[in-house]
């Protein structure tokens, strides 16, 4: 997310030090404070950003580092007529108030000339201490200490204000608000973009993009979901209400003006005119766990089910293998994304068999990031971000079929069976343990 947002702001990701996976603190090189503020106006992963004045592995190293920081950068914030306050934040350890005051006083002695103002200070400074990630083995002294001037906070309050629990219209697979915003940031969604979700469902991914000023649209094969009909997914509610639909969700957050439309359509048979239409495609395809992958079929095909909506709308749905879903999705993105546009989607994985070779590829799309979210001990899903780097030609339409890597992708088709085999084994083990 940070890498994508920096590139959106015109910057580039580079660390002064190697990013430590087991630490909540990062040191980044960012060209300007303006860019840092722009980053924090979007991120839901980062809590705050600071101008780093000094850091070290001990208090002595921290003080020495502070003395080496250029004085001309510090002086504007240390004037005798200014006001300030100092926060102290410890990760994985709780300090008493007396301990905090002692640490703050040690810095104030040689740094600050102004007056303390706890309610409305002009400048805010933070001491950050990292005591590691193991709550069962907390060291006496921190592994790393940082001191810096606070610049801005991230947008983590969006996670609560857009919570699915408070949303007007939800379904079985409505995306968590935090993940929705992360996906929009991976897609580098910006004002006046056009963002499309081919598996739109209840429109959860449209909301985060609309929040950032993009115009949004989607399609779904489920007539009842698009029209807000049928049984409700919310607990203690039997049927959906008269105004439970995607438009009502965007209206709930004051985003209705960004809503283009949602159409009943089969994404395996694109309905769009030829040309570059979308700045980003952000979606969560069905994995076959809570929602079955479906596409339109005919009576001549092997029929999986026939469904009738409340308005006597009938369609025949047939099997739609996961591997085919992903290849259709990549082909569609290669053809309909603008150059530099991004495809962001979730790919379900059976972890014991995972290798990077099973990530679907397309010659027009460059893999930007591949992030894992654990679902269980044996399954996960990966947030795949790809960027269009080459114009789509007719010969690219089925190019993935020509290389030797196509067969490993077929393993995605059995994800449902592998998922439930793990669940069955876990239940059997729990029953066996309970009998002991």
TrEMBL record:
Catalytic subunit of the TRMT11-TRM112 methyltransferase complex, that specifically mediates the S-adenosyl-L-methionine-dependent N(2)-methylation of guanosine nucleotide at position 10 (m2G10) in tRNAs. This is one of the major tRNA (guanine-N(2))-methyltransferases. One of its GO terms (molecular function) is tRNA binding. Residues 166-292 form the Ribosomal RNA large subunit methyltransferase K/L-like methyltransferase domain. This is tRNA (guanine(10)-N(2))-methyltransferase TRMT11. One of its GO terms (cellular component) is cytoplasm. The gene is Trmt11. The lineage of its organism: Eukaryota, Metazoa, Chordata, Craniata, Vertebrata. It is found in: Cytoplasm. It catalyses: guanosine(10) in tRNA + S-adenosyl-L-methionine = N(2)-methylguanosine(10) in tRNA + S-adenosyl-L-homocysteine + H(+). Belongs to the class I-like SAM-binding methyltransferase superfamily. TRM11 methyltransferase family. The keyword DNA repair does not apply. It is an enzyme of class 2 (transferase). Residues 21-156 form the tRNA (guanine(10)-N(2))-methyltransferase TRMT11 N-terminal domain. Its main location: cytoplasm. InterPro entries: DNA_methylase_N6_adenine_CS, RlmKL-like_Mtase, SAM-dependent_MTases_sf, TRMT11, TRMT11_N.
